[in-house]
Amino acid sequence: MEATKYRCNLDILSRPDGSVLFCEGKTTVIAGLYGPVEVKIQKAHIDKATVDCHYRPKSGLPGVEDRLYESFIRNTCETSLVAALFPRSAVLIMLQEMQNDKQLISCAVNAACMACLSSGIDMKFMFGAVTAFLTKDEELVLTPPIIDKDIKALFVIVFESTEGRILACHTEGCFSKEQFNQAVSICEAQCINVFKFFKQTLLDNK
Amino acid sequence: MAEQYKSLHPVKYYRDYLSHNIRPDGRVFDTFRPVILNTGSIDTADGSALSKLGQTTVVCGIKAELCKPKAESPNKGFVVPNLDLPPLCSPKFRPGPPSDQAQVLSQLINDIIENSQCIDLTDLCIFPDKLAWCLYIDFICLDFDGSVVDACIIALVGALKTVKLPFVDYDAALDNIQVNLENTRPLPVHSIPVSTTFAIFDDKIILADPTVEEENLCTGIIVIVLKDDELCCVHKPGGSPLSSDELLGCIEKSKKKVPLMRDLLKTALQDVG
To answer: By CB atoms within 10 Å of each CB, which of A6, B158, B168, B234 scores lowest?
Structure first.
């Protein structure tokens, strides 16, 4: 199985507190993080920071479909960040899709994690996402099949770095419980590489 | 006394109950609330159903309209689901444009319809590239008491089963549409998706079919949708991390609900005929 190539440029933008250009295979996302910053009164929590995520597609305005991704990434980041350190403030995560080769969600999640790391905000753990594809021939692969119709199901699984537990999960298409179980284990194995890549990138950028 | 305690220390109140393996409403961790389904409740819609899951109430109405298929998929119709969370259903919602939560849930329902393949879009085509049905599936939540997606999916299946589409004669040469309202056909429903919501309390206790109080206090939500023996959605948007065994345990628990829902649907559709 060919391994997915990860590439990443840290601090490519000057204004955000943390920014990153993240490539996963042929999928590319730019992420920027501002925080802790001022928050609107209606959104403020008295005991923790409000985490907000904004996602922009490569063309047009974000639609209803993108709201689901936003909430997915926001909840993932909220769990990982130590939000209790910054009450009555907000952490804003901006994501800009550059190129999508079917691994958009996992790439966006990884970009969000790298942006958090690069800004130096307090985190409980890192999180990494892996996309697995179930092909028409009932085979599980990590590299996206070239033809859309060959994909029977798609799994995006987000793991946390301390104990390797599942932080978030999103699926498309139909599959059996055994296939889901298999997908979890191959994603778990691949996720170790993602965390290795994160650490290596941070060491290289010291 | 319990009432004051509940409002002052809601989390502690729940913890005290859960440490005795029972929930404040008398259920154990993996029991579901009673479900009520009424089909064909709205005469003016082409298909409709009302579902209650404990206190959670959702009305689903399906309206069919004629439209032109997209050029890239000339033999497919459209399905447009939309969930409305009006201020009536919970103090959390304000009047105005749809809240983020309503948009996220609408999209989740759309994904479930797509993934479960319960509607084959080619069934909605009348004449390739010229005429197709567009099904507007509107959900209105009347009482927001947790596990809204579950209630929506039950109402969705109930409503789809009652859809009657009129026969349409289309003359391509003259571009003439004739709708025969007396002669109708049912919409083929290819699978029955069954959705189950779980809440994670205190990072370890998993509660099936949570009420809105449990959803607010818990640290994570999981939505699992099954169709027959296959899974068609495992949605866990962040929240407390779970081991894969715990997640598979949830899938196993949600399997218990499938035969129950099937029986319910059968009974509910009997009186409609």
So the answer is: B168
Q: Determine the CATH number of domain A6-204.
A: 3.30.230.70
Give the chain A residue whose CA is nearest to the CA of B200. A167
Residue of B nearest to A76 (CA): B238
Residue in chain A nearest B237 by alpha carbon: A72
- Nearest-Cα distance to chain B for A90, in Å, is 17
Does A54 contact B at CB distance below 8 Å? no
Spatial distance between the Cα atoms of B56 and B63, rounded to a whole number of angstroms: 23
Give me the residue from B231, B243, B251 closest to A174, CB to CB. B231
A vs B: CB pairs below 8 A = 102
Record: contact B244-A77, CB cut-off 8 A:
no
Q: What is the pLDDT of residues A105-161, one digit of tens each?
A: 999 999 999 999 999 999 999 999 999 999 999 999 999 998 888 899 999 999 999
Q: Give me the interface pTM, i.e. the ipTM.
A: 0.93
**Separation CA B162–CA B247 (nearest Å):** 34
CATH topology of domain B32-270: Ribosomal Protein S5; domain 2 (3.30.230)
Q: Is the pLDDT of residue B194 over 90?
A: yes
Chain B positions in Cβ-Cβ contact with residue A181 (cut-off 8 Å)? 244, 248
The pLDDT > 70 percentage for chain A reads 99
Chain B contact probe: residue of A171, A172, A188, A191 with most B CBs at under 10 A: A171
The Cα–Cα gap between A141 and B209 comes to: 34
Closest CA–CA distance from residue B184 to any residue of chain A (Å): 31
Q: What order do you get walking across the sheet with A151-160 strand by strand?
A: A140-141, A127-135, A151-160, A166-173
Helix B257-270 × helix B244-255 angle, to 10°: 30
**Does the distance separating the beta carbons of A67 and B251 come in below 8 Å?**
no
Å from A189 to nearest chain B CA? Answer: 13
Report the DSSP beta bridge partners of residue B57. Answer: B52, B143
What are the boundaries of each domain within chain A?
A: 6-204
Quote the distance between the C-alpha of residue B15 and its chain's center: 30
* Dist CA A140 CA A180 (whole Å): 10
| Token pair listed for B166 | 């009129």
Q: Which residue among A71, A181, A188 sits closest to B100, beta carbon to beta carbon?
A: A71
pLDDT at position B181 is: 87
Report the candidate in A58, A187, A184 with the shortest Cα–Cα distance to residue A110: A187
The whole-angstrom separation of Cα B55 and Cα A174 is: 31
Q: In this structure, what token pair is assigned to residue B209?
A: 């079919």
Q: Please compute the mean of the pLDDT values over residues A58-70 and round it to a whole number.
A: 91
